[in-house]
Amino acid sequence: MQTSVGNHTAAVDQVSTGVDGLKAEYVMRASAGGVVGGTVIGADAGDGRGAGVQQ
Predict the structure, then answer these.
(1) pLDDT in tens, 1-21
(2) Alpha-carbon distance 14 to 17, whole Å?
(3) How sure is the predictor about 38, in pLDDT bands with cuts at 50, 70 and 90?
(4) CB 43 within 8 A of CB 26
(5) DSSP 33
(6) Which residue has the higher pLDDT, 28 or 55?
(7) Is residue 9 within 8 Å of 3, Cβ to Cβ?
(8) CA end-to-end distance (rounded Å), the chain
(9) Which residues contact residue 45 at a Cβ distance below 8 angstroms, ignoring those fewer than 6 apart?
(10) Closest C-alpha to 41, from 14, 10, 1
């Protein structure tokens, strides 16, 4: 989703992926006025690390 007024733009993006039942990832990103923030939540069963959360 994106909205603009004049030269000002704000957007929210969401992406989710899954790979062969071994990896899952959800990404949420928000931006406004050139400032970007977001989070990634993922789990990877292929490398023995289990689930991880990043901010």
Answers:
(1) 999 999 999 999 999 999 888
(2) 10
(3) very high
(4) no
(5) T
(6) 28
(7) yes
(8) 21
(9) 21, 22, 23
(10) 14
